Amino acid sequence: MNMDKQTYKRFADAHAPRSPLVKDCVHAFLVGGLICTIAQGLTTLYAFFGLPKEDAGTLTSVTLVFVAALLTGLGYFVKIAKFAGAGTLVPITGFANAVVSPAIDCKAEGWVLGVGAKIFTVAGPVLLYGTLAGAVWGVIYWVISLF
Prior knowledge:
extended, mainly alpha
């Protein structure tokens, strides 16, 4: 069968399953909100036990990264993500999953060529361009402050 791009697009659109957009948005909102609520609860709990607010926030971030990495390793994070969609991409849990998933997928290739080489395949560009953007904005801020 030989089709041009327009005909193929119409064909694909007609046969593609429709996404339940409202339901997906509700799931993402609820799970993302739950993750944020848990994070706030952890911060409050750590502060209650005497940690300064900044240290409590740091420990909360570490806890969320650890739990997300553990859930990824145990295979539960993907099940939560299938239900919640973008709701699991609350930046720190999504980042932890993005680091751990390629490492797990490539562990059969060995520690150096598998895990070591692949661990930052997804998160690496985020780190690179995030750092670059921070540096650029820092220079812009510094130049503006000279005036």
